[in-house]
Amino acid sequence: MARANIRQIEAFNAVMKAGSVTGGAALLFVSQPAVTRLLQAFEDACGFPLFDRRPGRLTPTPEARQLFTETETLETGLLRVRRAADAIRNRERGEISVVAFAAIAMQLIPRVVAEALHGRDEVRVTLLVRTSRMIEDMMIAGHADFGLSLLPAARPGLTSTPVTELRFMAAIPAGHPLTSRERISITDLAAERIISLGRDDQSYSVTADAFERAGVPLRPVAEVQMAEAATALVSTGYGIALIAAPPQAGPVDPNVVFRPLAEHITMTVWLITPAGTTLSRLAQEVLALIVARLDAAGAAAR
Question: Could you say which of 38, 97, 196, 223 would form a disulfide bridge with 11 (CB–CB 3.0 to 4.6 Å)?
Answer without folding.
Answer: 38
